[in-house]
């Protein structure tokens, strides 16, 4: 077999070896295929958030501290609420007159936070006979993220010839994600898109029709220029 025959054969063998090398994960295969979300999963569960509003029989309106608590609860619902908010109203309590007035106040307050009739559900419960101030109860369902525990240092890191990932690898970042995520429900399914701003869209379209620029104008303090120092 001459050199002219060996050279094409060598090229063919080299090409075959290179293709097989691409298909083989090699020694770093376990590391390359490592998935932190599989090794350190985040568990997302539903949890009930509740707010009890005690109404005295002789009260005329809600106390300022109760209004502040309702405001905070409504903000939590808008950030993490899943499904409707429920307002549970006691039946048969001695403070039923004050409760009726308080219900109207609570509904008005929630409506000011965009938690209106389409997002608020009313329910009733039987008050205990000894309850002189049966409370109003606001509740909603929220998602809570629980990360997997870290701290598995069971392997010997002084001897790792295959350069594989440790059991604890990626655990800290997964724990940080579980703590920092704004709404754990986003880990279950992506949220829907917010509706488009129709008024803004009409403004841009009208500028386009008039031949005007459609970009937002920048204020002088938002622009920057190269310093003129030592330019002369």
Commentary on this structure:
Residues 207-218 have a biased composition (Basic and acidic residues). Residues 207-232 are annotated as: Disordered. It comes from Pyruvatibacter mobilis. The chain is an alpha+beta fold and 232 residues long. 36% of the residues lie in helices and 18% in strands. Helix 5 (96-111) links the parallel strand 2 (81-91) and strand 3 (120-126). The protein is flat, with a radius of gyration of 32 Å.
User: How many strands, what sense, and barrel or not for the largest sheet?
Assistant: 4 strands, mixed
Mean pLDDT: 82
CA-to-CA gap between the ends? 78 Å
- The CATH topology annotation of the domain at 46-144 reads as 60s Ribosomal Protein L30, Chain: A
Structural class: alpha+beta
Secondary structure tally: strands: 4
- Give the strand line-up of the largest sheet: 1-4-2-3
> What fraction, in percent, of the residue positions are helical?
25-40%
Radius of gyration: 32 Å
Architecture (CATH level 2) name of the domain at 46-144: 2-Layer Sandwich
Unreliable stretches: none
């Amino acid at each position: 077999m001459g050199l002219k025959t060996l050279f094409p054969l060598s090229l063919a063998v080299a090409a075959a070896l290179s293709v097989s090398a691409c298909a083989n994960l090699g020694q770093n295969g376990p590391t390359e295929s490592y998935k932190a979300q599989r090794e350190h999963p985040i568990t997302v569960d539903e949890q009930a958030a509740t707010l009890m509003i005690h109404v005295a029989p002789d009260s005329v309106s809600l106390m300022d501290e109760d209004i502040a608590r309702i405001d905070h609860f409504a903000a939590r619902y808008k950030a993490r609420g899943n499904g409707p908010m429920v307002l549970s109203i006691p039946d048969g309590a001695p403070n039923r007159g004050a409760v009726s007035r308080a219900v109207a106040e609570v509904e008005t307050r929630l409506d000011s936070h965009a938690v209106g009739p389409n997002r608020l559900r009313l329910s009733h419960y039987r008050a205990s006979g000894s309850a002189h101030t049966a409370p109003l109860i606001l509740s909603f369902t929220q998602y809570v993220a629980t990360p997997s525990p870290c701290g598995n240092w069971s392997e010997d890191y002084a001897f790792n010839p295959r350069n594989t990932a440790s059991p604890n690898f990626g655990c800290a970042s997964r724990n940080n994600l579980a703590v920092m995520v704004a709404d754990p429900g986003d880990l279950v399914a992506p949220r829907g898109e917010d509706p488009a701003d129709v008024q803004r869209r009409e403004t841009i379209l009208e500028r386009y029709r008039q031949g005007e620029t459609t970009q937002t104008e920048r204020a002088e303090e938002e622009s920057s220029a190269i310093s003129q120092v030592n330019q002369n």
